[in-house]
From TrEMBL:
<dbReference type="InterPro" id="IPR045038">
    <property type="entry name" value="AIG2-like"/>
</dbReference>
<dbReference type="InterPro" id="IPR036568">
    <property type="entry name" value="GGCT-like_sf"/>
</dbReference>
<dbReference type="Pfam" id="PF06094">
    <property type="entry name" value="GGACT"/>
</dbReference>
<comment type="similarity">
    <text>Belongs to the gamma-glutamylcyclotransferase family.</text>
</comment>
<dbReference type="InterPro" id="IPR013024">
    <property type="entry name" value="GGCT-like"/>
</dbReference>
<feature type="domain" description="Gamma-glutamylcyclotransferase AIG2-like">
    <location>
        <begin position="53"/>
        <end position="156"/>
    </location>
</feature>
<dbReference type="GO" id="GO:0016740">
    <property type="term" value="F:transferase activity"/>
</dbReference>
<protein>
    <recommendedName>
        <fullName>Putative gamma-glutamylcyclotransferase</fullName>
    </recommendedName>
</protein>
<dbReference type="InterPro" id="IPR009288">
    <property type="entry name" value="AIG2-like_dom"/>
</dbReference>
<keyword id="KW-0808">Transferase</keyword>
<feature type="compositionally biased region" description="Polar residues">
    <location>
        <begin position="1"/>
        <end position="13"/>
    </location>
</feature>
<feature type="region of interest" description="Disordered">
    <location>
        <begin position="1"/>
        <end position="28"/>
    </location>
</feature>
Amino acid sequence: MPPQSWNEETLNPPSTPPRKEEPSPYQVMAPPDYLTNLEGATHELPPEYPVYYFFYGTLAVAANLKRIIDLQEEPRLRKAKIIGYALAKWGDYPALINGEPGQEVSGYAYLVQCEEEAQKLAYYETNAYRVADCWVFCTDGEEPSEALGKTFMYAGDAKALLEQRFDRKLWTLQMGGKLG
């Protein structure tokens, strides 16, 4: 037996369709083919560089960073943190993995100037790490105090790291026989 709030019309609706609601003002403003007709679009994407990279291990040492991206002077590193991440050990190296909400990892931020610098950093990190977007919070009291940025996260099995399972053969393969 249906609940008392139901009536005959609810169980057997009329054959006429319901009245169409007024369109959203956003639908009125955009032409019908707005999302599919991109030919001749003049919208420019924001530039990718410069962009802050968050470092937490060997790249957080200014002398290492200078050598790796071939800078003339020591780079300016800013004290920073990211939230929602954790560090685990991958052999002798720290590896950034997803953490609990609110969990913080402290490190440093560096403003990568161009694609060439980013490629040198990725080469140094090997294929054991992948570039990931993150929100960088600078803790040095200077502006900007936060920015959308990038970091290197462990590309392997984070659960294995947490369980302290380390496979030396896999490590050698991922490192490509080179050390940082």
